[in-house]
Amino acid sequence: MPYNMRPLSLYRSQVQIDAGYKFAIRTHRYDSGGNSLLLRKSGTGSVYHYYYFDLRYGIADFLEFGAQTNFIRHGVRSESETYVTASLTTSDQITVTKINEVKGFGDILFSATLRLPVQYKWFDLSATGGIYVPSAEYRQEKPAHTITNITSANSYTVNLHYNYTNGFGVLVYLIESQVKFTFGKYSLHAGFTFRTPAKEGTSIRWEENLTEKQFFYYDKSYKYLLSDAFIADLSLHYQATGWFDIFVNTNLQKTSGGWTEFWGNKYRNRETELVTLEPCFELQISPSLRVCQTAGFPLKGKNADAPFYLFTTVRFSNFLFVR
Amino acid sequence: MKKLLYIIRPALILQGLLFPSLCHSQIEKQLTPAEIKQQTIVTEPVTLKKGFFRAGTIMNYRIADKYFTDKGEKEYYESNIWGSKSSYNLTFQYGISDRLEVEFATEYMNSRQESQTSEYVAALNTTRTLELKQKGTGIGDSYFKLRYQVISENNHSISLTGNINVGIPTGEKNPTEIRSAEKYDLPVGSGNFTVATGLCARTILYPYSFTGSVNYVYNFSGKKKFNVADMVEKEFRPGNMIETSLGINLHLNEWIVFSNEINYQYKGKGTINDHYTSLLPLSWSASYRPGLVFQVKKFRLGESVTIPVKGRNVAADPLYIVMIQYIF
Description:
The complex is a heterodimer.
Chain A: E1 14-26, E2 28-30, E3 36-38, H1 39-42, E4 46-60, E5 63-86, E6 91-105, E7 108-115, E8 123-133, E9 146-152, E10 155-164, E11 172-183, E12 186-197, E13 201-211, E14 214-225, E15 228-241, E16 244-256, E17 259-262, E18 265-268, E19 272-286, E20 289-302, E21 304-305, E22 308-319
Chain B: H1 2-18, H2 20-28, H3 33-36, E1 53-64, E2 66-68, E3 74-76, E4 81-95, E5 100-121, E6 126-151, E7 158-168, E8 183-185, E9 194-205, E10 208-219, E11 222-224, E12 234-237, E13 241-251, E14 256-267, E15 271-272, E16 275-276, E17 283-296, E18 299-312, E19 314-315, E20 319-327
Parallel strand pairs in B: 6-8
Antiparallel strand pairs in B: 1-4, 1-20, 2-3, 2-19, 4-5, 5-6, 6-7, 7-9, 9-10, 10-13, 11-12, 12-15, 13-14, 14-17, 15-16, 17-18, 18-20
């Protein structure tokens, strides 16, 4: 069904499976003053590989249940540092490189969406409630530091490699509302999402000692409270033909509140903000198959990564139990 | 029985006179799928028909993030360096006959390497920042290719196409614009001639097509500077290469094709001044390339991602490919 004729939730007995892949290039970052920092120049740029899975089912024409999760792989390098000592007879040099790797499945979000119980013509309104179940068991894994390029007793390279997992680690609630207007071939779609943690979480942080070129690891427990997240979307769609919907979306993401414990003290989490412009299109390939492609361009932000990304989603939908 | 024939004969004659389209469609059914369906990558002939000309561009983009080690393990580049490589490939294909096609391809390269490190010198109690900034832009290497249908799809259910490919090192092979050991322009060419030959088989079971190919690339020796500090060019010869691929393409509808290909490449050890070197190691890779190809009459737009699955001494990052073609 073309986008401009589609309600905000699935029809009764309709099942929809989404599988998506986002490739993001993180060459910029916004600092606390909103200035854009070029990470590429310092060699600390990186890429994200983000996979997304979503399953939804229409219980009634105005009620749907859904479950979604994701998988991420992302390695962030820090600037390398070299320490040089020189005497009359020798010159020793120790180089330290550092990479923080985030890898793994995210938590599973279970959600229910309720929309206006009338046939969709030009106006629709929906409300969603959801809960992230901490299935990913967010917990830092043991680092995998190495020592390479040993040229003498005191000349070598220390490669610090920290391993992080995905997910929140605690129950997180989600509330969402969406509204949609259609005027012929044009549609306006707006959404607002609020995410807040149910309680404080406890996790571990790995630290290390280097003795005789051997690493000894130990972990320390710490507490944290996730920040609240606010996400607002506004998109304008044009249904060029029955099988082609082209649209542009503006996305605002903001986080505030929350804290993280370091050495027994609670430090407030930084507030973040990011505005992204997303030109997109959706192709109806067959009655049950659609492909959606989005390009994301960061416009402004604070304390946030500013990646450019391409997000491709394949959507399969069909009716179950209907003869 | 005779009465029945009197009825059937005039009916057949009448049908032939009044409904020529029906007769025509019966003839069409005898043609191969490549001729009756829209000319997509599934249904088009394996080589261009005589007098047809196709121009296109292929854009590749890759960022250096991970690599397969000498032991075949996938690892991050540990040091902080930003490396990206893109190429804009122009291809021109012409059908000399219905079975013979010639192709010329050249590319514009754009590669970049940037890094910044801090150095603390204890004896002098000073800190200095080392910046590395290298880029390589310009016309890269060029290729001539001949493809001939050894077994034509018109007569058999499987076609077999042979090809000969000559690589010409038209791109700059040495570092240029050397301002310091860290700041210079990267080479955009390989610096040696290559000759490749291979076979490609294809069969169509509409809406599917199945392909398989094998290619052997012979590298001639060349001369170039491997390091910015090299005063003279060194003689080198990269190892020869074998490439194989298997593919399944599927029509999602009349004009969109979902392409799938698995690829295997093996490259032997190379030499510098007739000695094996770690700069040209033995390498291999196995990769999967899914893609979507949109066909709008004579215009074709395709996008695909090459995902390295396994390998040794090769990049492990996805390669993004966008293809635009038009047939004249």
